Amino acid sequence: MEKLLAIVGPTAVGKTNLSIKIAKRFNGEVISGDSMQVYRHLDVGTAKVSEPEQEGIPHHLINIIDVNEQYSVADFTEAAQKLITEIISRGHLPIIVGGTGFYVSSLLNGLSLGSKKDPDIRTRLNDELKVSGPKKMWETLKQIDPVSAAKISVENTRRIIRALEVYESTGKPISHQVNSGKQYDDLVIGLNTDRKVLYQRINDRVDLMMQNGLIEENEWLFKSGGRKIPAGKGIGYREFIPYFDGREDLDQVRSEIKKDSRHYAKRQLTWFRNKMSVSWYDLVQHPDEIQQIERQIKEWRK
């Protein structure tokens, strides 16, 4: 079974920095496991690793599609599987790095369209349900997955939402279920820190993003159709819509991004703790723990 290292955790805990150090130490290549870093031109709001920051380490699945294109967990899994084989053939260690737990767990455990859940998509679909009503949502399902729609009544909103969630997150109907089981001999390293420390780091990161071009990035995205295209739904982007509509000022936008980012970090941690077997470390408050991480990786690679 091919060996695969994964570095996971909530936003703003130092995953990128650790991945560079580990890649240098163990001759690795990085595969991004982030659902937003695939988009070209969205660098600030996605905290995308810059070329100088990569320090010569090969990075994959970054800047691969335009902002108006859809990208699903099925797309990610297919691309990542191919890359892992290629990286290993070069004698290098593949390292998945990212906070999109749905992507990472689907890759490690085999894509099972009927059992994976994406809380962000589900929340948005439930909001749409309140506005549009069950019949409209069922009709949407019928267009994309008539097989499932024929088996689900209009009144069964829970199953309607579930089927739509699977389609949006994987790009394939729930009626096309695939489960190939555990794929790799994997080691999952998780980074986390004290909640107060984490939330302050998130707030500071958002402030830095606002200073470093997030507003301009959103102006470009808005002109490119931001409110209607897939990339415009991400954190750091969707919060700007009320600003461009003249309903909120930038301070309100800043506060909303911070709040959404903190909530997302909490969901990320819940996902990784419940869905994956993770070895947790705190490099923020205990940077010397990187020695333990390196020892664990060395032992695992034997």
UniProtKB/TrEMBL annotation:
<keyword id="KW-0067">ATP-binding</keyword>
<dbReference type="GO" id="GO:0005524">
    <property type="term" value="F:ATP binding"/>
</dbReference>
<dbReference type="GO" id="GO:0052381">
    <property type="term" value="F:tRNA dimethylallyltransferase activity"/>
</dbReference>
<comment type="subunit">
    <text>Monomer.</text>
</comment>
<feature type="binding site">
    <location>
        <begin position="9"/>
        <end position="16"/>
    </location>
    <ligand>
        <name>ATP</name>
    </ligand>
</feature>
<feature type="binding site">
    <location>
        <begin position="11"/>
        <end position="16"/>
    </location>
    <ligand>
        <name>substrate</name>
    </ligand>
</feature>
<keyword id="KW-0808">Transferase</keyword>
<dbReference type="GO" id="GO:0006400">
    <property type="term" value="P:tRNA modification"/>
</dbReference>
<feature type="site" description="Interaction with substrate tRNA">
    <location>
        <position position="100"/>
    </location>
</feature>
<comment type="function">
    <text>Catalyzes the transfer of a dimethylallyl group onto the adenine at position 37 in tRNAs that read codons beginning with uridine, leading to the formation of N6-(dimethylallyl)adenosine (i(6)A).</text>
</comment>
<feature type="region of interest" description="Interaction with substrate tRNA">
    <location>
        <begin position="34"/>
        <end position="37"/>
    </location>
</feature>
<keyword id="KW-0819">tRNA processing</keyword>
<protein>
    <recommendedName>
        <fullName>tRNA dimethylallyltransferase</fullName>
        <ecNumber>2.5.1.75</ecNumber>
    </recommendedName>
</protein>
<comment type="similarity">
    <text>Belongs to the IPP transferase family.</text>
</comment>
<dbReference type="InterPro" id="IPR039657">
    <property type="entry name" value="Dimethylallyltransferase"/>
</dbReference>
<feature type="site" description="Interaction with substrate tRNA">
    <location>
        <position position="122"/>
    </location>
</feature>
<keyword id="KW-0460">Magnesium</keyword>
<dbReference type="Pfam" id="PF01715">
    <property type="entry name" value="IPPT"/>
</dbReference>
<keyword id="KW-0547">Nucleotide-binding</keyword>
<dbReference type="InterPro" id="IPR018022">
    <property type="entry name" value="IPT"/>
</dbReference>
<dbReference type="InterPro" id="IPR027417">
    <property type="entry name" value="P-loop_NTPase"/>
</dbReference>
